[in-house]
Amino acid sequence: MYKRQALARRLLTDQLDFISIAKRYIRVREFGDVLERIIPTDGNQGRLGGKAAGLILATAVLNQAKRDGRYRGEFRVPTSYFLPSNGILEFIEHNGFEELINVKYKPVDEVRQEYPLVERLFKSGSFPPTMHAGLEAMLEKTRETPLVVRSSSLLEDRIGHAFSGKYKSLFIVNTGPIEKRLGELQDAIAEVYASVFHPDPIEYRRDRGLIDFQEQMGILIQEVVGNEVGGMLFPLFAGVAFSVCEMRWSPRIRRTDGMARLVLGLGTRAVDRTVADYPVLVALEQPKLRAVQQPDEIYRYSQHEVDVVDLNEGRFESLAVDRLLARVGRQMPNMTEVFSLYRDRQILPMVGIMAQVEPSELVVTFDGLTTSSFPRHLKTVLDLLHEALGEAVDVEFAHDGECFYMLQ
């Protein structure tokens, strides 16, 4: 038990309530798996940051529940690599950016005005030799598959401080010669590093009395979950789920039912809310209770654009749903779980009428998914994590049509 506690303190956090939970669930062998995927730095003294720590702990909780016979479902975690938090300090020192550390004390309007320059400075900087070599070695081991570069600061996703949406996550295509892939990866990491100096997280820290804390940014690098279809890569669906349901659209829904926001494709539209587009809201204990009832409203308040990685163009892209369907044709798996037919101002199931369907008639409802075992599986995952952590949790996830992946 002492080894687990020491490893949790060294790699994950000095937060006592987190350590007390981690030492009960994360086995030494699991720490060994993490150590194999840490990208080296000169100092080798940083921690992995809140987002990575939360993912490691959640994985250990579910693995323990499987061993205890309390969880019989299946889950995966995408192949992940960790750049520890001291990396940003070494990057700043290597490029002579030390004076930027005190930007957080300036008026917010001034921080906002100067931020574009800060971002350009970081993206024009170079990486210390040890980090450069470590990132190159990582890319040589990975497949040429799209990656997502996620922030994982020491403050982010800690118990009591979520920092949701305050720092950047960036997608890169990760194809071509190693020099090109490495350049794209370093450019993305530099942009995530720069987001430490964005006015939004600075304002968030001020409001919570954390402004004097020396913010350090770890980086979590993950392979993007999904299938390659029509020259694009994207999961069948993705989203974010909550162990408690704070927004209840029916008196029949209880706070303890939990909820999920589901989207077709990459989960960005579920995590980063958009004004003109809508995820599908699901109460996990009562998944058939729609947030909207009338067919016209169901169509209007549905998802109309999909986020994908366009492999042909080498970029992250948003496509209208009908354009996506025109590109993929019938290649998309499990379409009946995602779509319903909107015809003659009625919402109809797709079963048995696939041959007569036009892309413009399809609407994202997830009606087929909500009648499957998926809501119960997701609720079980959330309940186990909620119980282990002793407080409400939220999970970002993706599903490729066959497997459930926990992302963070």
Describe it for me?
By secondary structure, this protein is α+β, with helices and mostly antiparallel strands. The chain has helices at residues 2-11, 16-25, 28-35, 50-67, 86-95, 108-124, 129-141, 178-194, 199-207, 268-271, 295-300, 321-328, 335-338, 367-370, 374-389, and strands at residues 80-83, 147-153, 169-172, 217-223, 227-229, 232-234, 237-242, 259-264, 280-283, 305-310, 315-320, 339-343, 346-348, 362-364, 394-399, 404-406. The protein has a five-stranded antiparallel sheet. A four-stranded antiparallel sheet has the order 1-4-2-3. It has a four-stranded antiparallel sheet with strand order 5-6-10-11, with helices on one face. Helix 1 packs across helix 2 (16-25) and helix 4 (50-67) packs across helix 15 (374-389).
